[in-house]
Amino acid sequence: MYNIGLSGFSGFAIVVLILAVIIVMKGVQTVRQGYEYTVERFGRYTKTLSPGFHLIVPVIDRIGRRMNMMEQVVDVPSQEVITKDNAMVRVDGVVFFQVLDAARAAYEVNNLELAILNLTVTNVRTVMGSMDLDELLSQRDKINAQLLSVVDDATQPWGVKVTRIEIKDISPPLDLVDAMASQMKAERLKRAEILEAEGKRQSAILRAEGEKQAAILEAEGRREAAFRDAEARERQAEAEARATHMVSQAIEKGDLNAINYFVATKYVEALQNIASAPNEKLIFMPMESSGVIGAIGGIAELAKQAMSQQGRKA
Length: 314
Hints:
Layout lengths: L1 H26 E4 L3 E7 L2 E6 L2 E4 L5 E8 L3 E11 L5 E12 L2 H6 L4 H18 L3 H6 L1 H16 L4 E12 L2 H79 L3 H20 L13 H25 L1
């Protein structure tokens, strides 16, 4: 009987020891890096366990939620959005978020990822539906910034920080894509025609400027030539005036050679005028060649006298 009682007691002690070990192990908690655990006492939140080794009261305390504190990503499924100008497009995207407060993320909202996803989908339709199609395709950064601001403000009570929202793809209908391609082609042809017209205009302006400069230079040349012709005629007139003055002085002195020079000059001028008449082809007139030769001799004599006088003055 004694042996039976002793063996029964030993079995009970072993059971108690095993239960004690299990209870102690229940009180030991190791939290991995990047996670935080919430502790509940009789179902009520009491504290949050950070990464590392922790002891809790067995049976009374238990682990409530195991929260991932690392940045996470949620795919936004493709959905149809009607723009401000009634164009229907399909869009999808991604949301990056991080839990900052494990307790609030665990107890302020049920199914945190689903809540963030639904909130993002709703605001994608709201933000993109307030824009025209052209704005939608050209201002993706603006769309991302507006979505981030709205969703981040809405998730702050949940202890969550939305770090980024990116729209991955915007797909208009095929007929709308074809219309946009035609519009872009028309715009490019228009710009090409404008550039060609501008080039022709510049070419015409440059050509006109060149012709203007050429006309100015030609006028300047004619002006210079006229000035030089006038100067030459003036000098010729001065020379003729000096010659006439010398002949007049010689006539006053009674020099027969001077008289012959004067008569011969007028005679030759008269012959030139008769020969240059347009309605005269052939002229017959009596002419005494000895008188003309004598006049030429008188001219030579006058030249000799003028040269001798200049020599004596020198």
